[in-house]
Amino acid sequence: MKGWQEQQSAPIQRGQPLRIVFDAERLAQCRMTMRGAEFWDIVGHVVCHPAGQRYEQSMLEAIRSTPDGPIVTMRSAPFDFVVPIDATRLELWFDNMDTYYRTCRVWDSDFGRNYWFGVEGPEPQPRDNVAYRRGAIPDLSIVNVAGQRVRKENVSPAPPRGSRVRRDFQTKLGVWAWVRNLAYEKHVWVDLHVFDADDVVIARQTLPLQWQTPGPGGGDSFVLDTTAYCGSTATPGSTSQRPDARKLQYRVYYEASGRVYTDGIAHEQQLPEDAVVW
User: Which position among 62, 142, 168, 184 has the lowest Cβ density within 10 Å, counted as fewest Cβ atoms?
Assistant: First the structure.
């Protein structure tokens, strides 16, 4: 809320939906505009303890004059996710930045302490999170995620007019990672899990990132853009039912000169149910 106040309308429950709404006037800096277009954002961060699952999402909805036009205004948007079944506390903070030059950045983090909320409900249940690789060195100055995109799509071609709707649900993962150039030979990868609505793992795999370009600060950029999970399909005369993907979680690792590094974060993203994906 405005005025540096926080308001909780109901107890936070394990395994139940949670909505976070942020008053953008709490962070009124870094409002960069150029030729009538807006170049700024406010991102919310949630870490679920004790397992450390981390959710990130813009707290704003971008309004464009045309579908592919510039952003002309911003308005608050809710941050919705389902609290993991093993969570006991939530840690929140928000950061405001310009998205063009990236030279202005400020935080709403209770003066660096972050905002903490207890989680209630039935006893915490075991959850098969992506395991932290033994011996990996956590260091954000050596490897970090510069960007990510997780989405679920119906990739089936549009059917002829009058035909039944076709379905081919695929969960896509895009990751852009920066690594410090410690050695010529280097390997970057993610370990990932896909969960259903009950927080049960329905797929797990390890996927390599590919070198893209030299990066800033004496580093290199690596990228992954792939289908992480293939869900249900439906075509005329054929149906294949698979579990509905509702969350994706991954950890990123970087190996160079015989050592393995990580950012130490269990990145997690909520996915919509199949029924609302077209």
Answer: 184
